[in-house]
Amino acid sequence: MKNSNYGTGRRKCAIARVWVKPGSGNIQINGREFDEYLGRPVLEILVKSPLTHLEAESQYDVVAKVRGGGISGQAGAIKLGIARALVEMDENLRKPLRGGQFLTRDSRVKERKKYGRKKARRGFQFVKR
Fold first, then answer.
1. Please, which residues have CB within 8 angstroms of residue 111's CB and are 6 or more apart in sequence?
2. Number of folded domains in the chain?
3. Is residue 119 one of the residues assigned to a domain?
């Protein structure tokens, strides 16, 4: 995209490539409108949160391509990508975004299942016979 700034966001297994440019506040994810793609108002608020924090919801257009993970992880990845792209656009935005913790990558991922257990930590129910 011409005249736009790029940011990569990651969360759980999701990776988002995000381009931000001055515009009218349109957000597009994988070629679809973001409210149609995400489907849950909570995730819509999460994706918009860096722009809301800067009071700039209607000043930038966002185009995101996201792959992997589920809807929740993808929304978190897009949020980080938007914040990084905004910092690339204007270095003065780093301090307010850092203060709102939008530039911190959430490194939590699903713990792997261990053998002899039902899930990662959950064992089978003990029965004394």
1. 120, 121
2. 1
3. no
Residues 88/80, Cβ–Cβ less than 8 Å:
no
List the pLDDT tens digit at each of the 129 positions of the chain: 678 999 999 999 999 999 999 999 999 999 999 989 999 999 999 999 999 999 999 999 999 999 999 999 999 999 999 999 999 999 999 999 999 999 999 999 999 999 989 999 998 888 898
- Global pTM? 0.90
CA atoms of 13 and 109, how far apart (whole Å):
7
Q: Specify the DSSP element, H or E, that contains 22.
A: strand 14-22
What gap in Å lies between CA 66 and CA 73, rounded to an integer? 10
- For residue 44, the domain's CATH number is 3.30.230.10
Can you tell me which residue has the tokens 């009071």?
Answer: 55
Residue 26 CA: distances (Å) to CA of 20, 38, 56, 57, 116: 10, 14, 12, 9, 49
What is the DSSP code (8-state) at residue 44?
Answer: H
